Amino acid sequence: MSRAIRKSAPGTPMPVTASEPALGEAYSEQRPRLRELTPYLALMREHRGWLGIGALLALITLLAATGLLALSGWFLSATAVAGLSVATTQAFNFFTPAAGVRGLALARTAGRYGERVTTHEGTLRLLASLRRRLFEAIEPLSPAALQHAGQGELMTRLGADVDALDSLYVRVLIPSLVAVCAILAAGTLIGIFAPTLALVAVIGLVLTGGLVPWLAWWRGSRDAMRHQSSTSRLRARLLERLQGLGELVIYGRWNEELERLAEQQAERDRIERVQARRQAWRYSASCRWRHMRTPT
Are 204 and 293 in contact (CB under 8 A)? Predict the structure, then answer.
């Protein structure tokens, strides 16, 4: 679904040029480009209310979590220092920081719940609009215009392709936007007290938040495209063979087709295992990095 489907007159084949692949050739093993998401991002304007509220609540949740971590750490340290003498113990105010910790904890919980509700509501509405527009673009096309695409590929586009976009906003756009805002806020706050330290912190956060995701995309995008292509071919072949099941059984070709389907399934499973290993490695590296940064 990386390009728009042009309408053609009934009975007129869809022109295919070197710069615009046929409908059945959309799944290539080349890495996707960001400009291919332009039609999807343009549809977000229709649901900018839900999506904007979700982004705001995600930012509030992050700020509340950061404030809770900072305030609770300061509260524990200040309480330990205040307990060194009777005078400091009597003068120390325990109630205001405790109320702040409770308030930030409630704000984080409520913000997370609201962010999940609004972002998923907006995403589901967006996917519904996208699926409707895709069907409206495919439905008027003549059989000649769709001759390069099998039924399995069309079902994949209407189903799996659209469903795969539900993670784009929730897991990519929102975290990226919130991360940029958090980096700016952290750099500004640290820069008030130590400008040099703020510069080092911002550079480190930018490298961590930009370089690592880019490396993950660079390593996994080709396998993801191969997995998508393999899934589309397997689904198309399975549907076509099921439609001709009677003829295949009569002529004794069904067992041969089962072996070919098993080979395609094995190839798809192999690609999934590669993706799972890389995802586990990235998660393990992230956990080790967080453990190294956490003081004991």
Answer: no
Residue with tokens 């050739």: 25
pLDDT tens across 282-296, in order? 667 666 555 544 444
Among the listed residues 14, 228, 48, 262, the one whose alpha carbon sits nearest the alpha carbon of residue 137:
14
Query: pLDDT above 70 covers what percent of the chain?
Result: 75
Within 8 A by CB and 6+ apart from 28, the residues are 21, 225, 229
Q: State pTM to two decimals.
A: 0.66
DSSP H helices, 165-211, are 166-168, 174-193, 195-206
Give the largest CA-CA distance in the chain: 96
Instruction: Assess whether pLDDT exceeds 60 at residue 201.
Output: yes
- Which amino acid is present at 256? E
Question: CA 265, CA 229: separation in Å to the nearest integer?
Answer: 12
| Beta strand ranges found along the chain (DSSP E) | none
């509501």: which residue's tokens?
A: 121
With tokens 């940064």, the residue in question is: 293
Tokens read off for 196? 């040099």
